[in-house]
Write a structure and sequence with these properties.
The structure holds two protein chains of two kinds. Chain A is mainly beta. In chain A, strand 1 and strand 2 form a beta hairpin. By secondary structure, chain B is of the alpha+beta class. Helix content of chain B is 38%, strand content 27%. In chain B, strand 23 and strand 24 form a beta hairpin. Classes of the chains: A mainly beta, B alpha+beta. The interface between A and B is medium-sized, with 26 and 27 residues.
C-alpha cells in the first residue's frame, strides 16, 4: 500500500515499475549494439563512466514488436550490481498505489503473466506491476 | 614506518578500545563467559600477530594471558578477581608496548613484566598481586620521556576506510578524466584560446595527480600476502612430513588490493603443489645430497604496469616422463605428439585439466583439479602463468599480473564497423591476409592458414559475432591477428582492421551479455562510447580450437609426408659468417628485421631493442653486423627471449638423421645431415644459459611528442617507437624524454630530457636538430636511451 510506482507504457499497455528501484529516467540516444546477444538486449549506452545494458521491455516480455517511442525513454535500475536501462514506450509520473497487489487476470498474455508481480489500482486505473528481475532475464527460451 | 607494523598497531589499538568496556564489565562479573571470550580473542590475536614480528616480550605477555584465560574457558579455573586484575594489567601493558613500538623504541623486559606474568599463576600469593604497582613507563628520565613524546607526535597517523568508498572516489575521478578528455577535444576544435588553455592545462595536471594518488590509495604491499604464507607452509609441510623454509623477496612491491585478494587462492594452490609434489622428504633430500630442509622462494618484481612473481622450490622438479604418460592416458595428446614436444612444452601439460602427477591422492593436492583452474583464474584478471623445471633441481612458476585489476593492455580491432578490444597478452603477431607469406586453405568447414610453415585454424570475427557469414568473407582483405592462448593453442582471427594499442579500464558486463561467452567485459573510450572486450579463450573453446588442432609444423611437400618420418623440425639459416647453421624450430618465435640503430653493443654486453623491449643479442661471435639492416631470429624457451643475428634465414627442414654430438664445442648440440650436407645445430640450452635474462624486466622509456602535429604522429612516432621508446599518454605523469617541434605547441607534461626539432635545415645554433636529419635524431635518441638504461 502507498508504494510509489513509476507509471509507464510497455507494449502499448499501462504498467508500473516499483519507483524505489528506479535511479533515474534517461532519454537514450546512442546505443552500441552487441553482436551475439539476444534481441531484447539492445546494447550498451554510456552514463557518466558506466556502461548501461539497454533492455527493450517489450521484447523481453516476449512481444514481437520492440518498444516504440519517439523519445526513447528508459528507467535506470540496478540489479545484482549491474546497471540496466529499461526501454519503455513512454514513462510518465510517479504515483502512489491505491491498493494491494492482486493476481493478474488471465488473458493479458503469457509475458505479462510471467513478468508481472500483480495488478495495482492507481488514480488512473489498474496497472500491471512488473518484476524487473524477470524483465532482464528476457523471454523464456523458445523450444528449438 | 613499516606498513605492516602500522597495521598491527592500529589493530591492537582498535581492539583495546573495543574491549575497554568489556574489561570493565568483566571486572564486575568475572564469571561472565561472553566477556572472557572477547578478551581471550584479543590476547590471542595479539599473540598471533606477534608471530610475524620479533617482539618476544609482547608475545610472552599475551601468551601468558591467553593461557590463563584458556584455563578459565575450559572450566579448569575460576575467573577470580586476582586473575582479572592480572589480565587487565597485562592488557594495559600491551597498550603501552604498542605505543613504544610505534615510537620506534626498543622493548626492554623489566621486573614488572615478570611480576605481571607471575601474577597470572593460579596460586600466586596475594602479596605478589599487591606488589603489582601500576606499571611505570620504561624510561623514567625526564629528557627520555620528552623525546619519546616528540617521536610519537611525528608518527604517521592512519585511518581505515571502506574499500567501497575508495571505489566510489575512483569512479568519480575516472568520470572527471572522461569529461576532461571530452573538453580537451572541444577546445582543440575551437583553436587556441590563451585565456582558457592555461587554466585548463592546470586542471589537467591536477587531475592527473589526483588520479595517481587515488590509485596509490588502493595499492597494498605484497607483504600483506606474504605474511600469511609462512604459516600455511609450516602447517602443510608438517602435515606431509616435509621440512620447508620460506624466503621472500620484493615484499615492498605494491599491487592493487583487489588483485592481492584475487591471487591469494592461486598462490595457495601453487604452494600446496610445491610442498606436496615438489619438495622431497628430508631423507630423500639427504640421499640426493641436498639440505634436508627444502626452500620455497617468492620473488616479486615490478616492471612497468606488470608485476612478475616467481614462486620456485628446490625440489625434485616435474617428472616430464610421467606427465607425458598421463597426458596420453587421459587422451589429451597422442604419444607421437608428446614425443615431439620439448621439455618446456611438456611442463606446460600440468595446466591441462584433469592431469596430476600425484600417484597417491593426498588430502592436500592431486585430486585432478588444480593448475588448470589456477591458470583460468589468473587469466580472468589479465594475468598469465608459465612453469619451468629442471629434474632434480626444482620447479618455478612464473606469474605475470597486471598492476591493477581493471586496467588491461589491449589492441583495438574493428569488424562490421564496430570496435572491439583484444587483450594484448594473447597477441603473437599481426599479418595482412594479402601478404604473400600467408596461404589460405579449407578443410571441411574450417578455414586454415599456412604461415611460417605452420598450419593455423582461422576464424573470422564477423562470423564469430554472427554479423557476417564466412561464405561472404573476403579473406584476402582482412587483417589476421595471430592469437596464442596460454594453453599454447594458436589461431588466427580475421578482422577488418587493426587500430591501436590502448590501456583500458575493464568493467564487468551484465549476465545476459556474459551468457554469449563472447565477451569478457566492456570499457568506455575517451568519448564515452562503450567497446566490448573479447573473451578469446572462451571463443576458441566454443569453436573447438582448444587442444584439438595443435599447430603442427606444416610439412612442406607431400613426399616427406609419405615417408612419415617423425624428424625434429629445424630452421636453417646462415650465420653472420655465411655458414649454414640450424636451430630447433620449437625455439623460434618469430623472425624480425631491424635497422642496426636498434643494437646496443657495449663490450661483452650485446642487446637489441625490438618493439620497445630490450633483448639479449646472440650470434655476433660469428661475424660482424651488416651496415644497415639485420635479420634476427627471435628465440624463446618459454621463459626468456633472446635474438640471434643471422645474415639470412634459409628454410625449415627436418632432422631425420642422427645428431653427432660434438664434445668440444658447447655452443652446438652437434652436427646433423640436412639434405646430405652437414649442418651444426646450435644448442639452445647453452645459448639461454649464457644470455638469458628474465622477460620484460626492461622498461621502455617514455617519450612525449607534440599532440597537435600530424607530422609528429605519422613520421616521428614510428621512428621513436622503433628506437625503443613508448609514446607517453597525455595523462602519463612522467616521461624520460620530450620532443619539441618549433612552430607546434610543446608536448605538455614533465620530461627528464628534451630534444628540439626545427623545420628548416639551416642551423639555428640553439642545439636543435633539423627534423629530417634522421641520423642525428636517432643518435640523440640512442644517447638518451643508453644513458638511462645503463
Amino acid at each position: 500500500m502507498n508504494d510509489l510506482l513509476l507509471m509507464c507504457t510497455i507494449a502499448g499497455r499501462d504498467a508500473a515499475i516499483p519507483a524505489l528501484r528506479v535511479q533515474t529516467i534517461l532519454e537514450i540516444d546512442d546505443v552500441t549494439p552487441i553482436p551475439g546477444t539476444p534481441d531484447f538486449i539492445c546494447g550498451l549506452t554510456p552514463l557518466r563512466s558506466q556502461a548501461l545494458t539497454v533492455v527493450d521491455c517489450a521484447l523481453a516480455l516476449g512481444f514481437d514488436q520492440p518498444c516504440s517511442s519517439p523519445d526513447r525513454r528508459a528507467a535506470v535500475v540496478e540489479i545484482d550490481g549491474h546497471l540496466y536501462a529499461l526501454l519503455v514506450d513512454s514513462a510518465q509520473d510517479v504515483s502512489e498505489a491505491r491498493s494491494d497487489l492482486v493476481a493478474i487476470p488471465g488473458g493479458l498474455g503469457e509475458g505479462w503473466q510471467r513478468a508481472g508481480l500483480g495488478m495495482v489500482e492507481t488514480e488512473t486505473g489498474p496497472v500491471v506491476l512488473v518484476d524487473i528481475e524477470k524483465i532482464i532475464a528476457g523471454p523464456p527460451a523458445l523450444a528449438a | 614506518m613499516d606498513e605492516l607494523l602500522a597495521d598491527f598497531i592500529a589493530e591492537t589499538r582498535e581492539m583495546l578500545e573495543q574491549s575497554g568496556t568489556e574489561l570493565v564489565a568483566w571486572e564486575a562479573d568475572p564469571s561472565d563467559r561472553a566477556r572472557i571470550d572477547t578478551i581471550f580473542r584479543f590476547v590471542h590475536t595479539v599473540k598471533g600477530n606477534c608471530g610475524f614480528f620479533d617482539f618476544p616480550l609482547l608475545e610472552k605477555l599475551s601468551h601468558a594471558a591467553e593461557d590463563a584465560l584458556a584455563e578459565c574457558r575450559a572450566g579448569r579455573r575460576e575467573a577470580d578477581p586476582p586473575l582479572v586484575t592480572a589480565v587487565l594489567a597485562i592488557i594495559d601493558r600491551i597498550g603501552e608496548l604498542a605505543d613504544l613500538i610505534e615510537a620506534g623504541e626498543e622493548l626492554v623486559e623489566d621486573q614488572n613484566d615478570m611480576a605481571l606474568i607471575a601474577a597470572l599463576e593460579a596460586d600466586a600469593a596475594i602479596e605478589v598481586q599487591s606488589d603489582v604497582v601500576p606499571v611505570e613507563p620504561v624510561s623514567d628520565e625526564q629528557d627520555d620521556a620528552v623525546t619519546t613524546a616528540a617521536k610519537r607526535n611525528t608518527v604517521q597517523r592512519s585511518i581505515r576506510l571502506p574499500v567501497d568508498l575508495l571505489d566510489e572516489v575512483m569512479k568519480g575521478v575516472s568520470d572527471m578524466v572522461l569529461a576532461r578528455n571530452d573538453l580537451a577535444r572541444r577546445l582543440r576544435e575551437a583553436g587556441e584560446q590563451p585565456t582558457i588553455d592555461g587554466p585548463f592545462e592546470r586542471l589537467s595536471a591536477i587531475l592527473a595527480d589526483v588520479r595517481t594518488s587515488i590509485t596509490r590509495m588502493r595499492m597494498q604491499r605484497l607483504e600483506h600476502l606474504f605474511t600469511s604464507l609462512p604459516r600455511l607452509v609450516r602447517d602443510l609441510s608438517s602435515e606431509l612430513g616435509k621440512q620447508v623454509m620460506v624466503d621472500f623477496e620484493g615484499g615492498e612491491v605494491e599491487l592493487d588490493r583487489e588483485m592481492i585478494e584475487m591471487i591469494r587462492d592461486p598462490l595457495t594452490h601453487i604452494i600446496r603443489n610445491a610442498i606436496d609434489h615438489g619438495v622431497e622428504s628430508p631423507v630423500e633430500r639427504l640421499q640426493k645430497g641436498k639440505r634436508e630442509i627444502g626452500l620455497l622462494r617468492f620473488a616479486a618484481r615490478q616492471s612497468g604496469n606488470q608485476i612478475s612473481l616467481l614462486v620456485s622450490d628446490d625440489g625434485g622438479g616435474i617428472n616430464t616422463e610421467r606427465l607425458g604418460q598421463k597426458a596420453v592416458a587421459a587422451g589429451i595428446y597422442t604419444k607421437a605428439e608428446i614425443d615431439r614436444m620439448s621439455d618446456a612444452q611438456k611442463h606446460q601439460l600440468i595446466f591441462e585439466p584433469g592431469l596430476s602427477t600425484a600417484d597417491e591422492v593426498s588430502a592436500v593436492s592431486g585430486r585432478g583439479v588444480g593448475m588448470d583452474v589456477v591458470r583460468a583464474n589468473l587469466e580472468r584478471v589479465g594475468g598469465s602463468i608459465t612453469v619451468s623445471s629442471k629434474p632434480g633441481e626444482g620447479t618455478s612458476f612464473h606469474l605475470h599480473l597486471p598492476l591493477t585489476l581493471s586496467i588491461i593492455a589491449t589492441l583495438t580491432v574493428s569488424s562490421g564497423g564496430q570496435n572491439y578490444a583484444i587483450p594484448r597478452s594473447y597477441i603473437e603477431e599481426i599479418v595482412f591476409g594479402s601478404a604473400s607469406s600467408v596461404e589460405f586453405a579449407q578443410a571441411g568447414a574450417r578455414r586454415l592458414i599456412t604461415f611460417r610453415g605452420r598450419r593455423v585454424p582461422c576464424l573470422s570475427l564477423a562470423d564469430v559475432l554472427g554479423t557476417q557469414d564466412n561464405e561472404r568473407c573476403e579473406w584476402e582483405t582482412k587483417t589476421l591477428v595471430l592469437v596464442r592462448l596460454a594453453s599454447e593453442d594458436v589461431f588466427a582471427l580475421a578482422v577488418d582492421r587493426v587500430h591501436d594499442h590502448e590501456d583500458v579500464v575493464v568493467k564487468p558486463i551484465a549476465p545476459a551479455i556474459m551468457q554469449t561467452k563472447l565477451y569478457a567485459g566492456t570499457t568506455l573510450l575517451d568519448d564515452g562510447t562503450p567497446m566490448m572486450l573479447l573473451d578469446l579463450p572462451s571463443i576458441a573453446q566454443m569453436r573447438g580450437l582448444v587442444g584439438e588442432m595443435r599447430s603442427k609444423p606444416a610439412i612442406a611437400d607431400e613426399q616427406t609426408q609419405k615417408k612419415a618420418k617423425n624428424g625434429v623440425p629445424l630452421m636453417l639459416f646462415r650465420g653472420l659468417d655465411g655458414r649454414r647453421r640450424a636451430v630447433r624450430l620449437e625455439l623460434v618465435k618469430r623472425i624480425d628485421t631491424v635497422s642496426c640503430d636498434a643494437f646496443d653493443i657495449d663490450g661483452a654486453r650485446t642487446q637489441a631493442v625490438i618493439d620497445g623491449r630490450i633483448l639479449p643479442l646472440a650470434g655476433l661471435e660469428h661475424g660482424t653486423l651488416p651496415e644497415e639492416r639485420c635479420r634476427l631470429i627471435r628465440l624463446s624457451d618459454g621463459d626468456s627471449e633472446l635474438v640471434y643475428a643471422v645474415s639470412e634465414v634459409l628454410d625449415a627442414a627436418e632432422m631425420t638423421d642422427e645428431l653427432v654430438v660434438s664434445a668440444d664445442d658447447a655452443s652446438i648440440e652437434g652436427v646433423t645431415l640436412v639434405e646430405g650436407k652437414p649442418v651444426p645445430l646450435i644448442d639452445g640450452h647453452t645459448l639461454f644459459f649464457r644470455y638469458s635474462t628474465p622477460k620484460r624486466i626492461e622498461q621502455p622509456l617514455k617519450c612525449r611528442i607534440p599532440q597537435d602535429s600530424d607530422w609528429a604522429r605519422t613520421i616521428l612516432e614510428p621512428l621513436v617507437e622503433a628506437a625503443g621508446y613508448r609514446i607517453a599518454e597525455e595523462d602519463d605523469d612522467d616521461a624520460d624524454l620530450a620532443i619539441e617541434i618549433a612552430g607546434n605547441t610543446a608536448p605538455h607534461g614533465p620530461a627528464k630530457e628534451t630534444i628540439r626539432l626545427r623545420p628548416d635545415p639551416e642551423d639555428a645554433g640553439d642545439g636543435s636538430i633539423y627534423r629530417y636529419d634522421r641520423e642525428s635524431l636517432l643518435a640523440e635518441l640512442k644517447r638518451v636511451r643508453t644513458g638511462r638504461a645503463a
